[in-house]
Structure formats: structure tokens, C-alpha cells
Amino acid sequence: MLLYILDMFGTAVFAISGVLLAGKLRMDPFGVVVLAMVTAIGGGTIRDMALGATPVFWVNSPEYLWIILVTCILSLLLIRHPRRLPWYFLPVADAIGLAVFVAIGVDKALSYGASPLVAVIMGVITGCGGGIIRDVLAREVPMVLRTEVYATACIAGGFIHTVALAANADVEVASISGMMTTLLIRLAAIRWHLSLPTFAISK
């Protein structure tokens, strides 16, 4: 039940990030909903299609769509001045959602017989895929392809998750271990502005 609640929370937070970007780009309400949708469920959709888990999760569980729609409506009505929110609110909430999404992606991949390596990749796709689609639609370089420690946190969390399972740890213990790894690395990156070195080629 706790994982389900956190999953809904993560869905709402990711939807908000889509709404905020749509607002910066002055999109109409349809554009707002589209960006919110792809951000919140895009990664999980790609994961399910890659695993052959059809219909994809939100077709069987339409409450995800309702969460996104309600989030969009509330955001349009209430978030007129995002800068009034504490600077850390959305990044920290996003980190929690990211950690949960990665764990769900790893667990689902393993339940479909995927190898640990593929499970880690599915975890990363679940956590980062929606944001990549959002940024591409907004004509921006996806955050995970820049110096942010974001996808790296997902990889680390997925790795710890699968290693714990390989060591015969309880499924819940493995999931929590993976989530805490992703969350702590992401929070550390936010707190101390950690980033990866860039790859640059001289002209």
C-alpha cells in the first residue's frame, strides 16, 4: 500500500513538472495536459511496450490518468507564481518519485523474466523516459543527457536493487534498498550541486 501511495505521489509530482514547463512555454490547456501526461506515464509506457506487458499499465489502471488530470487542473488554478514555493520542494518531491519509479521498473522487468542488466535499464527508462519525452517535445536537451546526476542515481539504485535480490534478500528489502540508494544520491546531487564531467570536443 505504501508503494502504491508513493507511486501516485510520484505520478502527481512528475505531472507538475510537465505543467510547469508547459507554463514557461505558454502552452494552451491541451499542451499542458500532454506534457503532464508524457512526463508522468511516458517512461512506464515505454517500459511496458519493451517488455511486452500489454495493455500498458495505465490502460488497466486508469486512476493514473485521473491523478494526472486532477493535478493539471489544480496546478492551473493554484500555481501562478512557482517561485513562491520553497526552492527545494519540487526537486525533493521529484527525487522521491524518481526512486519509486525506478524500483517499480526493476521489479516489473524481473517479473517478466528479464535479466538483471535489462531490469536496471527498465528501471532507468521508467524513471527518466517521461522526462526525456517532455524535454524533446519542448525542444530542449533532455536533463538526463546533461551534467545532472539524475540517470546515474537511477542506475545506482537499480544496481543495488538487483544485487540485493541476487543475494537472496527479501523482495521488499531489495526494493527499499534500491529506492534509498536512488533517493540519497539524487538528494546529495541537489544539496551539493553535484554533476558529471562533460564531454567536449575542441573545434
From TrEMBL:
It is found in: Cell membrane. Residues 4-78, 92-162 form the Glycine transporter domain. Keywords: Cell membrane, Membrane, Transmembrane, Transmembrane helix. It is a multi-pass membrane protein. The keyword tRNA-binding does not apply. InterPro entries: Gly_transporter (IPR005115). It comes from the Bacteria. The chain crosses the membrane at residues 6-23, 30-58, 64-80, 87-106, 112-137. Belongs to the UPF0126 family. This is TRIC cation channel family protein. It comes from Enterovibrio gelatinilyticus.
